[in-house]
Write a structure and sequence with these properties.
It contains no helices and 4 strands. It is mostly beta strands and 84 residues long. GO terms for molecular function: serine-type endopeptidase activity.
Length: 84
Amino acid sequence: LLVPLKRLLPHPSYAGEATSGDIALAQLAWPVAFSSRVLPVCLPSPTLSFPPGTRCVATGWGDIHEGGEGLLGGGDRLVGGQGL
């Protein structure tokens, strides 16, 4: 499935570096039908709180170095701690 972007809305605090605010919303050119392979992202409630030490999985997409390959990265993390 390939759908072009209608609009990309970067976070207002993003300054072009892989630091704070490195996130954006993407509006698609047309709606897509959900299926077993196309699903909306699952986000927790804004009031949900995880205690320190809770194991989570974090993923992302993008370059961490100029000219990088833009590969998906991720791994186990601890809330309030360092990557494992």
